[in-house]
Every structure is written in C-alpha cells, then in structure tokens.
Amino acid sequence: MNNEWAFLPMRSSNDLIGDADAIRARMEEDSYLYFEKILDPEKLLALRRDMLTVLAGHGWVLGGDLLMDAVVGGDTYHEDQEEFLDAYNAVQRLESLHTLAHDPLLTNLMGQLLGDGAFPHPLKICRLAAPGQHEVTTPPHQDYPNNQGTPDLTAAWIPVGDCPRELGCIAVLRGSHRYGLLPLAIHRGAGKRQAVLNDEMLEDLHWVTTDFSLGDVLLFPSLTVHAALNNATEFNMRVSVDFRYQPKGAPLTPICLEPHFQRQTWEDIYEGWSSTEYQYYWRDLDFEVVPFETFPVQGMRDNIGYEGDGRAFESALRDQVIAGSVELDPEDWREVLTIEARRAARNERRKTAVAERLAEPAAGPSTDE
To answer: Per residue in 103-140, is it b (16+ CB within 10 Å) or e — as a string?
Structure first.
C-alpha cells in the first residue's frame, strides 16, 4: 500500500519532559515530538482574540459573539494576493504573537532538545487557513530550504485554538528527516515549493497526525517532511503559529532575522508595544550569519526568470503573480484561471450560506405548557 496519505496517530511525548536524552532519542526515532496541553490556555486564547480581532477588522472573519469561532464571513485570500498581505502584516505586528515564542515552557523544552542557550528566531510565522482553499494548502515540504543555516533548526507548530483534523491541522511523515535534503518542485501553496518524495519514502514511511487541542505543541527539525491537511470545514478558519529555534552558536541566514515576508521593518513591528523586553533580543546573542544557498526548483523557475535563493525565489514568484507579470504558457494560465474561478465560486457559496445562517431567527423559549 502507498502510505502517502494513510494517517496513523501521533504519540505523545509528555512523559519524556525533563529527560533530555529521552527527548532527543524520541526525536531521532519519530522525526517529531508531540506534547499535549502544555501551554497556558489563557495566554493562547488572548493571542487568538488579538489575531481574530485584526482579521475581523479586515473583513475576513465575523466579529462580536462569533469572533472566537473564526467564522469566515467574507472573501478568503492566499499569499499571492495583496489583500492577504495587508491583513497578515497587521497580525505580524501583534506583541502577543512575538512574546509567545519566549514562553518559559517553550524555551525550557527547547533547551532540553537543543541544549542550553537555544533561542527563537526573530522570524515568526502565522498560518491562516480558510475553508475552500485546498488548491493552495501547504504541500509536503521541509523547512530547511526556506530557512537554512543549520539542520538542527527546530520548528514549534502551535494551534491557536482547538484544531481537529477537519480544520486543516498539520501532518508529519514519520522518520523522514533521516532521508536528508530532498529535491524541490513548484507548488501553489504556502512556500511555493514542495518536497519531491522518492518511492522508498512513500513505501516505507507513514504519515501521522492527530486532533490537536488548545495548549498542544508539535516540534520537528528542519529536514522533517510535513504538510497541512485541507481545511474541510464549511465556515471556520484554522489559526496557528510557527516559531523556529536553534542551538546556541549555530549559523543562521539573514531571512531569519527579519519579519516574515520582509514587507515591514522591526520598527513597524514594534510600534505601540507595551514592553521592550523582547525587542531586538537577538543582537547580543552569539551566532554566525551565513548566506542562502541556491536550490534548483523543478517547474516554473525558467518562466520566472529569477536565479536567487529559495526564499527570494518565493518572494519573486509571489510578487510577479501579484503584478500579473509571470510568463506562463496557455495551458498553465488556463489552470490558474480555472482554479481561481473555482475558489471564487466557493467563496460566494460560503458567504451566501453564512448570511442565511445569520438571518435565521434565534430559537425562542418553548410555548408548550
């Protein structure tokens, strides 16, 4: 059987907390560490409220009593669209987002895995996965081509709210980090690239996932293959965050020292913060800044006309898509336009359904005697 999308359950590693040797051995065996309900739910709910308040202000989700349910009432967007970036940039400026990466529970856990002095990258990432966006769902990929620096770089994926499978949670290809750096191919989802999995991996390895709850944390190194499931709900957005940590003194690349997508400065990010404690915290740390490497990407690179590093290629592709200057052959354009037409139709059906639900009269008290 081809195991590419035959999911098995993740196993919890809560019982290993405090045993650094056991934590490292489990990571080497599984390619991930799953911890259940270890973060403060109140802190996460406060971040969720901050993020959804921003999105409600941009018309993405409904406010009021429905705010915390992340009900998508308006149009949905993806990273190729300016409307997405306008709202995303505002979320990136949230102090509660950046400070969560310094939570003692997280940093202590990372110290057990990566050693004393492990620290979070300044780069923080938010994932805002709307329903009806399966064409641009994040594909199977490794983080190393996007971040580089050190293969010991470890991601912390944190759902900002309960995240069952149908909401589009994350899945991991167990054991995949031992296969090294994989080839890349073009994809329309986040990152614009996907890992090319060989037949041996597809035959021998299994995908694992779970129904994530508020307070859960998933850790995995930068060579672990992982992907997002499609958000199969009718109305709700999946909200999660990614933080990247590295060992003390390990090299990193310039992109990891800048805000995500590089469309804002740190001065923009920090404006209006209540504290300076976690501003520019990395400047006094010991690490080496190394340049990006160029990784070939199968597919559209020749059409894009860009030969820079992976993350810069992603940015160039996104900018050219937004500007409408990507040169595709007629068949490629036909596919792009067909997909966008389908997305637009799904948007309209969902908005109509939301409006009808909101228009339904609330159930009143029973008149039966």
So the answer is: beebeebbbbbbeeebbbbbbbbbbbbbbbbbbbbbbb
Distance CA 117, CA 358 (A): 51
Position 3 in a domain: no
Of 51, 4, 44, the C-alpha closest to 217 is: 44
Structure tokens at 179: 């296969």
- Domain of residue 173 covers 8-182+198-269
Residue 164 to residues 77, 189, 276, 300: CA-CA distances in angstroms?
22, 21, 36, 34
Distance between CA 308 and CA 296 in Å, rounded? 10
* CATH number, position 74: 2.60.120.620
Least confident range from 3-7, 79-83, 160-164: namely: 3-7
Give the SS3 label for residue 12. strand
Res 349: pLDDT = 73
What DSSP string runs through 83-138? Answer: HHHHHHHHHHT-HHHHHHTT-HHHHHHHHHHH-TT-EEEEEEEEEEE-TT-GGGSP
Beta strands in the chain (DSSP E): 8-9, 33-35, 119-129, 154-159, 170-173, 184-186, 193-195, 207-209, 217-221, 226-228, 238-246, 297-298
Does residue 336 fall inside a structural domain? no
Kindly state the DSSP code that residue 274 receives in the 8-state scheme.
S
* Domain presence at residue 289: no
**3-class state of residue 208 by DSSP:** strand
In a domain, 129, yes or no: yes
Strands 33-35, 217-221: pairing kind: antiparallel
Closest CA to 222 of 153, 322, 306, 135: 153
What is the distance between the alpha carbons of residues 180 and 361, in angstroms, rounded to a whole number? 57
Please provide residue 40's backbone torsions phi and psi, each rounded to the nearest 5 degrees: -65, 115
Does the pLDDT of residue 126 top 50, yes or no? yes
Count how many domains the chain has. Answer: 1
Q: What is the pLDDT of residues 86-114, one digit of tens each?
A: 999 999 999 999 999 999 999 999 999 99
368 φ, ψ to 5°? -70, 140
